[in-house]
Amino acid sequence: MSGVYIFGFDIGCLHEHRLEIIGAPITSANKRKRPLATIQTISGQNKRFASLGRESGKAIKSLIKKHQMTTETNQPIVHIRKIELDFNGETIILTYNPDKESELVKLDAIVRACDESLLARDGYR
Fold first, then answer.
1. pLDDT over 80 (residue 30)
2. pLDDT number for residue 2
3. DSSP labels for 50-105?
4. Closest CA to 98 of 106, 90, 89, 108
5. Is residue 81 packed enough to be buried (19+ CB in 10 Å), middle (13-18) or exposed (0-12)?
6. Domain boundaries of the chain, sorted by first residue
């Protein structure tokens, strides 16, 4: 076998297996969770929507990679920002924050462009 080994694990195979698990279709409902309509408290409903938001964000990110909406370096070029849901006549908006890495890449590009155009450094600090 070839590839990078850390602590005896083949990281490439582990990463591929993880992506397969994330991208696997959900075949059955979680039996431990009660139906949303039976949850009486607002905080309980908010926790359920937050959980849905986290899981849907992961699933959509894996779909973006699966459909090759990425750059040559496998960085996504499509980003999820919001999902709007309707529950009992109320609008629930799941807002996704951009990745910190992509924000740092954008900031680095701005700094690099300023450096290349010979702008004074004090102007953009």
1. no
2. 46
3. HHHHHHHHHHHHHHHHHTT-B-TTS-BS----EEEEEETTEEEEEE-PPPHHHHHH
4. 106
5. exposed
6. 5-97
**pLDDT above 60: residue 57:** yes
- How many whole angstroms separate alpha carbon 39 and alpha carbon 41? 6
Number of Cβ atoms within 10 Å of the Cβ of 108: 10
Digit-coded pLDDT (tens) for 82-121: 999 999 899 999 998 866 766 777 788 888 887 777 655 5
φ and ψ of 124, to 5 deg: -115, 15
Contact residues for 74 (Cβ-Cβ < 8 A; gap 6+): 65
- The model's pTM is 0.54
Question: Which amino acid is present at 91?
Answer: T
What type of residue is 54? R
Cα–Cα distance, 63 to 40 (Å, whole number): 33
Residue 81 has pLDDT above 80, yes or no: yes
Q: Which of 37, 55, 57 is nearest to 45 (CA)?
A: 37
